[in-house]
Amino acid sequence: MTMKTAEDLTLEIKRLIKVPCKRVFEAWTDPEQLKKWFGPDEDLIVPLAKVDLRVGGKYRIQMKRLDGEFHTAVGTYREVRPPERLVFTWAWEKDGSEPDFGEVEPSEMLVTLEFHARGKQTELVLTQEKFASVESRDRHEQGWTGCFDKLEKFFIE
Fold it and tell me: Could you confirm whether domain 11-156 is CATH 2.30.30.100?
């Protein structure tokens, strides 16, 4: 068995988004905008998003599959620097179907979003750390890639 290094359990995704940083940052922090684009694929809708955008403030993004299964991400903002940087914890609720914050699965992760101006575009860099396993990291990579695809579409529509 090979030992997992911290690098193995860190994920970094970069994407060039064709709108300025301010708009991309708002899409990540405005609950109404989050409801329109967040989620890894078209089979998920976001019926509920709560954002308390300040250091120590909490967020909750409730995603619901077409079959009725819920996936609810929650966390606390650690750093809020509009429109350049957003750092927050990331965890999953055990039963994400309730309308308010619930019990969280163990293994809280850390997500850093960096918004770099590239002319009138934004280079979005997501770094997620503290995965419990390589499998979890790989599932999140697939999920975030889908989110980034939907975010790009959100700005086109």
Answer: no
Q: Which amino acid is at 28?
A: W
Name the residue among 58, 133, 116 with its Cα closest to residue 88.
58
Sheet with 109-118, side-by-side order of all strands: 11-17, 121-129, 109-118, 85-92, 70-81, 58-65, 44-51
Q: How confident is the model at residue 135 (pLDDT cuts 50, 70, 90)?
A: very high
DSSP annotation of 57: -
Please list, in sequence order, all residues whose beta carbon lies within 8 angstroms of the beta carbon of residue 9, skipping any fewer than 6 positions away: 129, 130, 131, 132, 133, 134, 137
Q: In the predicted model, what is the mean pLDDT of the chain?
A: 94
Which amino acid makes up residue 15?
Answer: R
CA angle 73, 51, 13 (to 5 degrees): 55
